[in-house]
Design brief:
Blueprint lengths: L6 H6 L15 H16 L2 E6 L5 H12 L3 E5 L2 H19 L5 E3 L9 H10 L7 H12 L20 H4 L18 H10 L3 E5 H8 L15 E4 L5 H8 L2 E4 H18 L4 H8 L1 H11 L6 E3 L1 H4 L2 H24 L4 H21 L6 E7 L4 E7 L3 H8 L6 E6 L9 H7 L5 E5 L5 H4 E4 L12 H16 L3 E5 L2 H10 L8 E3 L5 H11 L3 E5 L15 E4 L10 H12 L4 H18 L10 E5 L3 H4 L3 H7 L5 E2 L2 H10 L3
Helix pairs in contact: 2-3, 3-4, 9-10, 11-12, 11-13, 11-16, 12-15, 13-15, 15-16, 20-27, 23-24
Length: 642
């Protein structure tokens, strides 16, 4: 009897339409995932899939989603992944399957040009830096021809250009339906397109906003969806933690003051008291920053609030905001902008009270200081209950969570518990790459523990011969900016290869330079541990300085550990270890990105071998042969240089 294949399995199989493409190879794991997604769609299941690097998970969920012919929301972790999915992968799959769904890409409002804010910036002439005049001209030129208003299309603009907040809106400063440019608003247009689309690509923040019916989302996007597919799902709990919390920062306060001053000068010049109130906010913000101490730090907020100088500075800030609110109440009918400013200051006041005066045992109140700024935060101890409460309205849809890194020691328990998922279907698919021949795990002998004095000097000594063997072509991934900055100072004089450092240029440009040079050494932290895809010989060595445990003095982590302990749990095994394992898996995943890639993963932390938990890390990594000898690394590169 001939086996009847599912539509998805046939499409991705050796006789399906994808097989006609020259660079496509049918993969059993991809077909298995596609069938599981197809079943989840049909039966409205919750499905959790870990798909190892090279499985082809994007096609594995796009094919059944498109063949189902129903409305599907796809959420990704970052804007870069959104663009890749929407502009590259989705059109390819649609064309191959010969389907023509209505498609939409939706980002947060700060990614779209705001015509009102652009005109306001042009009129006031106030710019953040001298270089911003050139950036503003680039935006003006691009704005005359854009149809989408998506600033990622403005190639002359870096992702972190200082002009961006001056030509985009936020939920706080948007005028909404009162805006004189509302009918031509790019955000409104993008939302309308998304509402009518069959396939909508969003990011995790927008998905959560829609779940919570918050203004940033729609409250109308998810109803009627047959499925919500969450890619890079390992990021979702952290995004939810930030989303369900509250923040008041120096940036928010200063932007409110700047915007309100511009509106006052344009529409209420006679309101001297209002002008004085908003102009005085800057000094209050500076006083709060001074009271927090000049060091950069993250710490619990409650002990600081008991200090007289900080209490006095916050009291002055609150009084200044109240004067601004009262004056804006009088001026609100002068312009839409002043009315929006009144609502904005009221929201700031409410958040400041909630964070600094409310005693809430379900949230961690903490602060962070930067060189010239600060942020006060209230973060939930756990997000599972809130997430389940929000998703309960959409139980009639399939929920599919996927990533290359969801398991710890081959178990989904940590991920499932973080989001409070109720008995989901699970599927773990190994990478199809031949790690036993393509890769080598190198844990150097003789290195001290990372907290030892002079560890970085010892690390550098261990890295140098490895870089010589690989002829550059390396990522050096660090768990802290301090270590990265030290290595950025010391390494260039010790090697003949080009050294590129995170932050020296925009991320995408830095990666393009790395690929083109072919023998460069790139130093990165945080964002370079994931979402970076460099295939081929340009990347043949990944060095990780130490196991990526979260900083022990992180106030949110400490509060969650205490809560875990009170609940009878084990903070290390239940929280710290799983989180570090998943981060390490992400970093390790930068090495082998294709069937022809080869390379060495060097983890310079002896705890992988000396501590009992080291085995959990090793078992969670791809199955590479392990060596502690530099000579094996040298032989590996000689063997693969032929």
């Amino acid at each position: 009897m001939t086996e009847v294949k599912s539509p998805s399995a046939y499409s991705l199989g050796p006789d399906g339409p994808f097989a006609e493409q020259s660079n496509f190879l049918a993969r059993p794991a991809q077909i298995e995932m596609a069938q599981a997604v197809e079943t989840a769609l049909q039966q409205r299941q919750t499905l959790v899939v870990e798909a190892g690097t090279g499985t082809g998970k994007t096609f594995a969920y796009l094919v059944p989603a498109l063949l189902a012919g129903e409305r599907v929301i796809i959420s990704t972790g970052t804007k870069n992944l959104q663009d890749q999915l929407y502009h590259r992968d989705l059109p390819t799959v649609c064309e191959t399957l010969n389907v023509k769904p209505r498609r939409a890409l939706l980002k947060g409002r700060s990614n779209y040009l705001c015509t009102y804010r652009l005109l306001q910036t042009q009129q006031t002439g106030r710019l953040p830096t001298k270089e911003s005049a050139r950036s503003l001209r680039a935006v003006e030129s691009w704005a005359r021809g854009t149809h989408s208003g998506d600033l990622s299309e403005c190639i002359a603009l870096a992702d972190d250009d200082a002009i961006i907040p001056y030509v985009t809106s936020t939920a706080e400063n948007c005028l909404g339906g009162d805006c004189p440019h509302y009918q031509d608003c790019f955000v409104v247009k993008a939302r309308r397109t998304a509402m009518d689309a069959d396939i909508v690509v969003v990011n995790h923040h927008l998905l959560l906003a829609d779940l919570a019916l918050k203004e940033e989302g729609f409250g109308e996007l998810l109803p009627g969806a047959a499925a919500i597919i969450i890619d890079e799902a390992h990021q979702l709990a952290e995004t939810a933690s930030n989303f369900f919390g509250q923040t008041v920062s120096s940036r928010q306060l200063l932007e409110f003051a700047r915007d309100t001053e511009a509106e006052t000068r344009a529409h209420a010049r006679d309101q001297d008291d209002l002008l004085n109130a908003v102009q005085g906010i800057g000094k209050c913000v500076a006083d709060v920053r001074l009271a927090l101490g000049m060091d950069r730090q993250k710490a619990p907020l409650l002990p600081q609030l008991k200090r007289r100088d900080l209490h006095s500075a916050l009291t002055d800030l609150a009084a200044r905001l109240e004067v601004a609110r009262a004056q804006l109440e009088l001026a609100a009918d002068r312009s839409e902008g002043l009315a929006a400013a009144r609502d904005r200051v009221e929201a700031l006041q409410a958040k400041l009270i909630a964070i600094t005066e409310t005693n809430d045992s379900d949230n961690v109140r903490w602060y962070e200081t930067y060189k010239q700024g600060f942020a006060f935060n209230s973060t939930p101890l756990a997000v599972a209950e809130a997430f389940q409460r929000q998703t309960a309205r959409y139980r009639n849809a399939a929920w599919i969570y996927t990533s290359a890194t969801l398991t710890v020691n081959h178990q989904f328990r940590h991920f499932i518990a973080q989001l409070g998922l109720q008995e989901p279907e699970t599927l773990a698919l190994d990478s199809p790459f031949d790690y036993s021949n393509q890769a080598l795990l190198y844990i150097p002998n003789g290195l001290p523990d990372p907290d030892a004095p002079h560890y970085l000097e010892e690390l550098l000594s261990a890295i140098l011969p490895t870089l010589q063997a690989s002829q550059g072509r390396a990522f050096l991934l660090f768990t802290s900016y301090r270590a990265l900055e030290w290595m950025a100072r010391e390494l260039p004089a010790k090697i003949q290869y080009p050294v590129l450092v995170q932050g020296s240029q925009p991320r995408n440009r830095l990666l393009d330079t790395f690929r083109k040079l072919g023998n460069a050494v790139l130093l990165g932290t945080s964002s370079f541990w994931e979402g970076v895809d460099v295939r081929g010989e340009a990347l043949s060595l990944v060095v990780i300085d130490k196991l990526p445990f979260a900083a022990p003095d992180d106030p949110v982590l400490r509060a969650r550990q205490d809560a875990c302990r009170r609940g009878g749990g084990d903070p290390f095994n239940d929280m710290q270890l799983p989180r570090a394992v998943i981060t390490l898996k992400q970093g390790a995943g930068r090495l082998i990105r294709d069937v022809t890639d080869t390379g060495v993963l060097m983890i310079a932390d002896p705890r992988l071998m000396s501590r009992p938990y080291g085995e959990v890390f090793r078992r969670s990594l791809p199955p590479m042969p392990l060596s502690r000898q530099l000579s094996d690394v040298q032989r590996f590169f000689v063997r693969h240089s032929d």
